[in-house]
Amino acid sequence: MRVLPFFIIYSIPASVVIAWALGGWWTFYPLVQNYVLVPLADHLLGLNLRNLEGEAEAAANRSRLYRYVTWGVVPVTVALVLLVGTEVASGTLTWLEIAGLTLATGMATGAAGITTAHELTHQRRFERGLAGVLLALVHYMHFGIEHVRGHHLTVGTPADPVTARPGESFYAFLPRAFFGSWLSAWHIETDRLRRKSLPRWSWHNRMLLYAAISIALHAGAYLLWGWIGVAFFFAQGFIAVFQLECINYVEHYGLYRRELSPGVYEPQTARHSWNASHRLSNMSLFNLPRHTDHHMHAGRRYHILRHVEGAPQLPAGYAAMILLALVPPLWRQVMDPRAAAAMAG
């Protein structure tokens, strides 16, 4: 069945459980799986350039199994955070194990949790609610507002905080992406309230609601696990968001829409998002690396996203590109010529 490869995303939280069970240095195994084994497998397995066509695409779109795969990530991710948080607070782990499991959990709530939230936040209200659960676990619920109502409209322009500028290092990009996306979400939400003649400082404001949920979750972490649990819960969320912003950096680096007149930009096209069709990365991340088609058809579900031949193509899968982004001189050596060529085309 075509749906089966997408279950690979569950190997991400499963690796954390394995790490916890084995203990010691094994708690860092998920780091090896995600950033050594996956890039190696991407290289060996190569690209998947095939797209579903005709009746095969229609049948896949009718099948609810693809939705159930995404829905299942939600309870699994919640259970993982509860499991590791309880173990961290138990007093039975060494500091090495606490560090390893916190890092591993953040990688899982990022790679599996936020990736799934990204898919669900583009769908129906029930699925957007599921996305909210996953985003609440990493203290980033405003992503659901900013990504859909901000990023998808302003990508490739100076108004988008998560479009990396040509020549911009990841470390220069990160604070703007982090704080800028929150400010963008705040402005989007307050504009919505103004149009509806609703007060900004009220329960109608989702940004205030999200802040209250985050405070409540940290208070719950304290009641369950004490201060060490609060530190774990905050840290795993930070790691997850750091990973998200790495991916945001990769997805649009150096690609921009030309300004036609003051404040007016050319329409978004296939050349404004980096595409990657590396087989394992796409299977394990709900086809997120087929990012060009996602921006061209934001509501299209992950399993029918298409490889876009004329789009700018990344030289490696997401895991390898994240590692490259953390070393700016190497990143620029690899990506600057590609970005310049994409914009000149």
Describe the structure.
The structure is a single chain. This protein has 345 residues and is mainly alpha-helical. It has one domain. The protein has helices at residues 11-22, 29-45, 54-62, 65-89, 95-120, 125-137, 143-154, 170-195, 206-252, 279-284, 291-296, 318-325, 328-344, and strands at 259-261, 264-265. The chain has a two-stranded antiparallel sheet with strand order 1-2. Helix 4 (65-89) crosses helix 9 (206-252) and helix 8 runs antiparallel to helix 9 (206-252). The protein is globular. The two termini are 39 Å apart.
Summarize the structure.
This protein is mainly α and 345 residues long. The protein has helices at residues 11-22, 29-45, 54-62, 65-89, 95-120, 125-137, 143-154, 170-195, 206-252, 279-284, 291-296, 318-325, 328-344; strands spanning 259-261, 264-265.
Task: Describe the secondary-structure layout.
Blueprint: H1 11-22, H2 29-45, H3 54-62, H4 65-89, H5 95-120, H6 125-137, H7 143-154, H8 170-195, H9 206-252, E1 259-261, E2 264-265, H10 279-284, H11 291-296, H12 318-325, H13 328-344
Antiparallel strand pairs: 1-2
Helix pairs in contact: 1-2, 1-4, 1-5, 2-12, 4-5, 4-6, 4-9, 5-6, 5-9, 7-8, 8-9, 9-12
